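R.M. (postdoc): so does anyone remember the format we settled on? I'll just put the structure tokens first.
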């Protein structure tokens, strides 16, 4: 029995999440740190050590069932100009109301089963998003499923009463990374390090390669001596600085996402030693606007884990029921019945069913991409 068997059932109870009345709103600036540069030999040595530790994690931690809970904080006014991936209605007079009118805190839950050897996962998330058409937050349930090369995100009609035109506001591309984003630090703890865009997240055949990282040097973070890696700069000029704690099996304790030197987000993870394995216990994530104002913060707590889950008892695939919506092939579809062709909600030329709030003008809005 592998060493991970000792890790199979444990529960962590940690400090409570962020307060909505007194939110912690850090500034969008990289805290000055003293980086000690390494020579070429030392850079090569630490990279080998880091990648060996990640490979050992992948070989040993091949499955798990996690439950994550937390809170999302939307500061007052943080959604006034909306989400770049959301179609916003033009208000009367063209004046945008302050959105949200006051700080808003919502609950988050994620129940995820990971099977790395089989390239499978089942990830059920419940969270809230803001409906700009109705000026209110809406609850959502999404079920992301991967079974090898098959990938779908189900939006069950019976658990999403506001599904329809509301959901069609969102232009998020459908890929495994978006479906399993709530478990990112856990994927890192299994040795799967995604790219700055997050599209490799959840593709368990894509493992990190040393050529995609540069060693910036050594630095301290929360009294931990870390190696700071910089990921490759992608076409959209995104890159990340990863803070790696070698004393904790190359745990990723901090990630800063930047574009052209401007800090866009930060994720900080705390770890606990569970029978000799360093695993995430809590993490927080902060997103900033381009002017440095906080757009959203969220906190997460790992509340339970089963490291020896019976994979035969897990449904990694499910067919949608009539009325359900699903995201597949980077498009949004409505499933109208077993003998009918699904309706592509994102296609403005196709007729929409009257039920469920679908209407004209809900075609997909192309988002300009930077080159």
């Amino acid at each position: 029995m592998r060493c991970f068997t000792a890790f199979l059932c444990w529960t962590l109870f940690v400090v409570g999440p962020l307060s909505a009345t007194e939110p912690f709103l850090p500034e969008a600036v990289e805290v000055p740190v003293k980086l000690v540069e390494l020579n070429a030999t030392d850079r090569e040595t630490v990279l080998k050590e880091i990648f060996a530790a990640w490979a050992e994690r992948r070989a040993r931690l091949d499955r798990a069932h996690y439950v994550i809970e937390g809170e999302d904080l939307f500061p007052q006014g943080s959604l006034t100009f909306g989400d770049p991936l959301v179609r916003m209605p033009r208000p009367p007079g063209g004046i945008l109301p302050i959105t949200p009118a006051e700080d808003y805190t919502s609950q988050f839950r994620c129940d995820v089963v990971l099977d790395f050897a089989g390239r499978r996962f089942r990830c059920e998330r419940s969270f809230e998003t803001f409906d700009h058409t109705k000026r209110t937050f809406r609850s959502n349930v999404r079920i992301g499923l991967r079974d090898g090369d098959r990938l779908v995100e189900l939006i069950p009609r019976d658990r999403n009463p506001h599904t329809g035109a509301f959901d069609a506001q969102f232009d998020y591309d459908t890929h495994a990374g978006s479906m399993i984003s709530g478990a990112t630090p856990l994927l890192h703890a299994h040795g799967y390090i995604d790219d700055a865009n997050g599209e490799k997240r959840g593709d368990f055949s894509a493992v990190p390669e040393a050529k995609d990282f540069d060693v910036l040097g050594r630095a301290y973070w929360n009294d931990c001596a870390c190696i700071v890696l910089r990921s490759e700069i992608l076409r959209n000029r995104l890159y990340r600085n990863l803070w790696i704690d070698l004393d904790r099996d190359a745990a990723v304790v901090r990630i800063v996402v930047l574009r052209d030197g401007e800090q866009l987000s930060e994720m900080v993870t705390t770890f606990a030693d569970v029978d000799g394995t360093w695993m995430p216990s809590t993490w927080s994530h902060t997103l900033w606007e381009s002017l440095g104002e906080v757009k959203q913060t969220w906190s997460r707590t790992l509340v339970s884990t089963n490291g020896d889950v019976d994979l035969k008892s897990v449904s990694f695939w499910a067919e949608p029921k009539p009325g359900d919506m699903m995201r597949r092939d980077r498009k949004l579809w409505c499933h109208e019945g077993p003998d009918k062709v699904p309706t592509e909600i994102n296609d403005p030329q196709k007729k929409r069913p009257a039920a469920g709030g679908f209407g004209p003008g809900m075609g997909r809005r192309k988002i300009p991409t930077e080159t």
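R.M.: ...and that's the designed sequence above, right after the tokens. Also worth knowing: Residues 3-15+61-212+293-344 form one domain. Confidence is low (pLDDT under 50) at residues 1-29, 347-371.
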